[in-house]
Design a protein that fits this description.
Arc Repressor Mutant, subunit A, 3-stranded antiparallel sheet, 12 helices, 10 strands
Length: 350
């Protein structure tokens, strides 16, 4: 008798209503080298499958769907190949059901095929590996998280994504403390000198993550430092998840005076912070930004401290330029630091 052909899953309807159901062992993927883009692909896969139907483990991303998911007009062949390769590379997963500590290294997907059409749009087919099946299907005994797919597709920082998953995994605790070093390890920034001091860690990462989380997800939380003497040794989280939040934009006509006043006082952008000592005018900042956004991504820092966030790349890029200007100014006075910086930036564009 001929084997029944198993049709791949193409769509489950309204993308805005899709829910990710992720087993707790998959939380351990914070240890992996998966990028934010690859996490988004994985979560979209998980939102498409029915965890009670392991015979349907192949999902097709229709033409243009990946581009929309990753918010790009066109994906280069080499870039897509690299992302699919990472999704097929063995990763470490902990077994939360084992009595003693136990982990495995497995490949999440055994097959990935990609086909490009005449307009440069890709159709991608992903098939879960046999070893990954226990983490994707019939996962009730492992424990799992559930969240809206739309909560993570709009994120622009890997740090925010990992924090979102971490908070969802601990939501049942409502309030808890975590050592600062442990949180840095989870966010994969423990080896970065930039975040060694708590003030820098808080200003450059924790505050930015909370801001993006509030704007783009249904997860609401607060945090505060826990001190031992003068040192911050832990962070206390308190979390509330708004399951029925409607994530609607505020109508400007319905703003209170206090909300309008807060918005009128423009907060400095992250990329501007390294330049504060130069006391540039707003017009100069505007001109610098118009140049900054045209600098090719390969000229921006690509370190782990950035984790694929363009915002952090631009911050570190200008931080490096500012330090260079300060160093050169000590050797020989620079008459116009604005003109000098502009020249350095335009040189990178050329």
């Amino acid at each position: 008798m001929a084997r029944k052909k198993i049709e791949p899953i193409i769509s489950l309807g309204n993308e805005d209503k899709l829910t990710v159901q992720k087993s707790l062992p998959l939380f351990a993927l914070w240890r992996s080298e998966l990028t934010l883009s690859e996490f988004k692909i994985l979560d979209t896969y998980l939102s498409r499958i029915d965890s009670r139907k392991p015979d349907k483990r192949t999902v097709i991303f229709e033409k243009g769907e990946l581009e929309k998911l990753l918010e790009v007009k066109r994906i280069r062949t080499e870039e897509l190949d690299e992302r699919l390769k990472h999704l097929g590379t063995p990763v470490r997963l902990d077994d939360s059901t084992a009595k003693n500590k136990k982990f495995a290294r497995i490949s999440l997907f055994e097959k990935a095929t990609a086909e490009q059409d005449d307009n440069g749009l890709w159709q991608v087919e992903l098939t879960a590996s046999q070893s990954a099946m226990k983490y994707f299907f019939n996962i009730e005994n492992l424990g799992y998280l559930r969240y809206k797919l739309r909560c993570i597709t709009a994120l622009t920082s890997r740090y925010t994504y990992i924090m979102f998953i971490y908070l969802e995994a601990n939501r049942y605790r409502k309030s808890w403390d975590i050592p600062v070093d442990e949180l840095k390890q989870i966010l994969d920034c423990d080896k970065e000198e930039t975040y060694k001091a708590y003030k820098r860690f808080n200003d450059l990462l924790l505050k930015r993550v909370q801001k993006e989380m509030n704007e783009k997800t249904e997860c609401r939380y607060s945090y505060e430092p826990v001190k031992k003497g003068r040192n911050v040794v832990a962070i206390r989280f308190e979390i509330e998840t708004l399951s029925n939040a409607n994530l609607e934009e505020i109508d400007e006509n319905q703003m209170t005076f206090e909300q309008w006043q807060e918005g009128a006082i423009k907060e400095k952008e992250l990329w501007q912070e390294p330049l504060e000592a130069f006391e540039f005018t707003q017009e100069q900042y505007d001109e610098l930004f118009s140049v900054l956004i045209t600098i090719p991504s390969n000229k921006l820092p690509q370190s782990q401290a950035c984790h694929g966030s363009v915002e952090l790349m631009r911050y570190h890029y200008l931080d490096q330029k500012a330090k260079e200007i300060i160093r050169r100014d000590k050797q020989k006075a620079i008459q116009s630091k604005f003109a000098y910086l502009l020249k350095l930036m335009k040189k990178d564009i050329e």
